[in-house]
Each structure stands twice: as structure tokens, then as C-alpha cells.
Amino acid sequence: MNTFTASTTGTRDDIAAAPSRAARIAGLIVSGLVVLFLLWDSIIHIANVSQVQDAMADLGFDPSLNRVFGVVLLVCLIAYVLPPTAILGAVLLTGYLGGAVATNLLTEQPIVSTTLFPIYTGILVWGGLWLRDIGVRRIMPVRPSR
User: Fold this and answer.
1) What does the angle CA 125 – CA 110 – CA 52 come to, to the nearest 5 degrees?
2) Which residues are CB-neighbours of 77 under 8 A, at least 6 positions away?
3) Distance of CA 92 to the CA centre of its chain
4) Residue 14, pLDDT above cutoff 90
């Protein structure tokens, strides 16, 4: 028997519990806040405002890439917002945020406030999705220690 079949048809402990109404609401709130923040970030990159131009130049990026970053983030965000592609969107956002962490490390930004901020954001991306989506709970179950 393959692993996937065993995990979806095994004992009651192997099957993820459906999120409660409160968990779904909390997940929607967390996801909504993350979406609003990342939507704002993508819009200001696409608009190529002077603050983005200055910040990206300080990080060593060519100013012509600002709109590209904004569009890439927007595409990832759209995938995250649509239920059929939410897990794919979370994976894509994780990759995008990982690039931000790498950039911040390379440019020696402050650790807690700047370098780790994309990691905090990624935790909220996955946490909000985990709270509201049974599919994510099946992929990443939280099990009590034995």
C-alpha cells in the first residue's frame, strides 16, 4: 500500500480534522491581512514610486525590475487568493519571500526587523491557510507528541 493511500484511509489519528468555524474565520482574517499587505506591496512596486526606487537601488536592483517584482508578487497573490490554487499560491509566495530573505542577508540588513520579516510573513501565509483549509491540514498535520 502506498504512503498516500495509508495517510488518507488510515486510522482516525491519520486523518486531519476539518477546521472549525472559528478556525476558518481566524484563517480568513490572518490571510486577509497578509493579502492586503502584499497587495499594497505589489501595487507600489508596479507604480514604481520613488520610495520603492530608492529602496530597491539600495539593495542593488536595477530600477527597471521594480514593476517585474510587483507583477510576480501579484500573480503569486492571485494564486493564493483563489481556493483551487491557494496551496500553489502559498508555495509561490514562500519562494518569493525566500528571495527577499536572501537579498536582505546579502545586503547585511538588520536581522530581526528586516531580514526575518519575510519569514514572519510566510508564517502568516501558511498559518492563515492552515487555519481555513483542510487540504493544508492533511499535508501538514499537527500531531500531539506521543
Assistant:
1) 70
2) 35, 38, 39, 42, 89, 93
3) 7
4) no
Residue 64 lies in a domain: yes
Contacts of residue 46, defined as CB under 8 A and 6 or more positions apart, other chains included, come to: 66, 67, 70, 71, 74
Structural domain count of the chain: 1
Please write the tens of the pLDDT for every residue from 40-58.
999 999 999 999 999 999 9
The pLDDT tens digits for 78-135 are: 999 999 999 999 999 999 999 999 999 999 999 988 999 999 999 999 999 999 999 9
| C-alpha distance across the termini of the chain, in Å | 25
Cell match 499535508: residue? Answer: 139
| Structural domain boundaries, residue 102 | 21-138
pTM of the model: 0.84
Supply 120's cell numbers. 514572519
Q: Would you state the cell numbers that stand for residue 18, as one nine-digit string?
A: 476539518
User: Is 146 part of a structural domain of the chain?
Assistant: no
| Triad 79, 83, 87: Cα angle to 5° | 60
Measured between alpha carbons, how far is 145 from 126 in angstroms, rounded to an integer?
A: 22
